[in-house]
C-alpha cells in the first residue's frame, strides 16, 4: 500500500465561523499519525492563516494536502483577485483587508508572513484577476 | 506494567448490571473513550480524562465514580478533613463557614484544614511566578486534573504553558499533614488526610498525581455522600461555632469558574468552563488565535468545581450561593513569607502521551489513516452509534486498530445481507433449470 495520503478541503467564502475547519481536521489527523507536536503546530498555524486569507480575500477556494513520511505539502488554490505585488504582501503588517474584516480582529497583515514563517518552503503563484495558488511544505 | 497502570488510572467505573448498552455515554464523551461492545459500555482507560460527563448523562446510573466511604476514618488515629470550597456552596443561606467546619469535626474528623486556605497561597505563588516568567505566557491553569490530563494526551504544544504549581488540594494536604504531625507527635502513617471532593478526577489525581511523585491525600470522600450527615450536625453547630475558618474571598472563590483567575489579579485573562468549551479554547490556543492573554483558567465542569459530578446543588445555583457567602469575607487571610514554601512547585514534568496515535510509526500510520478515509467514504455518515462507536469516523479508526469490523455498521451489514440474499436467489434460479434437466 502507498505511504502517501491525499486530502481535499473546500473553503467556503465569507464564513468566518467555518474558517479553520480544514486546519482543525488536519491537526487531528496528524496527531493520530504520530507526527511530532512541533510539525503539527507549524502545519496548523500555516494552514489556518491560509484558510483565513481565502475567506477574506478570495471567495474561498480549495486546499489539497499530501502527507508522506518525509513532508506535508499544502496547496491552497483560489479564483480570487490575485496579488498585485507579492513582495509587498509578504511584508509584516501590510494588509488590504477591508474595515469590516479588521473589526473582527483579522487583517493584521500577518497572514502571508506567518505562512512563510511556519512552513519550510513556500511558493506563491498569482495572476491578477485570475487567482492565487500558494504551495507550502513542512518537513517531518 | 506498574507505570502504565499508574499513568492510566481511572476513577469512573461501570456497573454492568445496570448498563443497557444505549448510546448516551458514547455520544457525550469528549475524548471518545467509550464504546458499546456486546451490549455493554466499555471505557478505554488511556483515553479517559475522568471528566464525569458519562456519569452525568447515563440515564440508568450505570456509570459511577470510585471514592472512599466515611468508614476510612477508622484506619487512622488522627484525621484531618480538607473541605473543597465548593462544599460551602451546597447549603442554603450559609452565613458562616465555621458552621460547616465544626460539623465536619462533629462528624468524626479530629481537625479541618480548608482547601481555600491553601488556595490563597497558591494564588500568591502563581502571581509571583507569572510576574517572574513573562516569556511563558499565556499561562494555563493546572488546578483541574481533567484539563491537565486532556492537555497531556491531546495538546502537546500547550504543556509548556501549564502553570507548574501545585493544585490547592495538593498543597493543602502537605500543610495539613505537617501541622497534624507537629500538633500530635504522631508518625505520618497514623494521620489520615481526607479530601471532601466535588469530583472523581481528584480521586484519579491522588492515585496518579499531577506534577508530583506522590500525593499527600490519603482518602477522597464525595460531597454528596456526606451532605445529609453534615446537614444534621449543622443544626447543632449554628449557634456560636468555634472559629476554625481561615480563608478569604480569594480562597473561597476557587470553587467557581473565574475564581482562580480572580486571584491572579490581572485583567488579561479568560475563564472557560464546561469540557466542550475548554476544548474549543485549547484548540484556538494551539493555533495561536490569541496570544496576548496572561492567564487562561479552564474548568472541565460547568460553572467550575461547584459543577462537579459529586456535588448536590445545581452548579449555577451553587455559584450564586458562593458569591453570596464570599461577600462577607476578607479579601485574603493567608500569605506566604519571603521564602517559597516547600511543595508548591511541581517536581515532575508533565509528559505528552500520544494515546491516539494509530500506527507504530509515521509510515504505518499514514497507511492506516488512508484506510480510515476510505472506510469513512463507505459508511453512511449518520453517526448513529448503532455500531457502538460514537461516529462513523471513530468506527473506521477502531477497524484499522483491529478492534472492530466493517460489518459492525448496521447499514453496511444490511447491504451485505441484501447482496447475500440476491446471490442466493440467483444461485437458486441457476440450480432450478439443472434440476429440470435431470428430471
- Compute the number of structural domains of chain B: 3
Q: Compute the CA-based radius of gyration of chain A.
A: 14 Å
Number of strands of chain B: 11
State the end-to-end CA separation of chain A.
Answer: 20 Å
User: Strands of the biggest beta sheet of chain A: in what spatial order?
Assistant: 1-2-3-5-4
Overview of the structural elements:
The complex is a heterodimer of chains A (140) and B (439). Chain A has helices at residues 21-32, 37-57, 86-89, 99-102, 111-118, and strands at residues 5-11, 61-67, 71-78, 121-127, 131-139. With 140 residues, chain A is of the alpha+beta class. Chain A has a five-stranded antiparallel beta sheet, covered by helices on one side. In chain A, strand 4 and strand 5 (131-139) form a beta hairpin. The model of chain A has no long low-confidence stretch (mean pLDDT 89). Chain B folds into three domains: 2-65, Alpha-Beta Plaits (2-Layer Sandwich), CATH 3.30.70.20; 70-326, no CATH class; 362-427, Electron transport complex subunit B, putative Fe-S cluster (3-methyladenine DNA Glycosylase II, Chain A, domain 3, Orthogonal Bundle), CATH 1.10.15.40. Chain A binds chain B through residues 1-5, 7, 20, 23-24, 27, 29, 31-35, 37-38, 40-41, 44-45, 48, 67-69, 140, and chain B through 154, 156-157, 283, 286-289, 352, 354, 356-359, 361-363, 365-367, 369-370, 373, 397.
Question: Which SSEs are present, and which pair or pack?
Answer:
The complex is a heterodimer of chains A (140) and B (439).
Chain A: E1 5-11, H1 21-32, H2 37-57, E2 61-67, E3 71-78, H3 86-89, H4 99-102, H5 111-118, E4 121-127, E5 131-139
Antiparallel strand pairs in A: 1-2, 2-3, 3-5, 4-5
Helix pairs in contact in A: 1-2, 2-5
Chain B: H1 2-7, E1 12-14, H2 24-28, E2 34-37, E3 40-43, H3 53-57, E4 63-65, E5 78-83, H4 85-88, H5 97-106, E6 111-112, H6 115-132, E7 139-140, H7 145-154, H8 168-184, E8 191-197, H9 201-207, E9 219-222, H10 223-237, H11 249-252, H12 259-264, E10 269-273, H13 275-286, E11 295-299, H14 315-326, H15 362-378, H16 392-400, H17 410-438
Parallel strand pairs in B: 5-6, 5-8, 7-11, 8-9, 10-11
Antiparallel strand pairs in B: 1-4, 2-3
Helix pairs in contact in B: 5-10, 6-8, 15-16
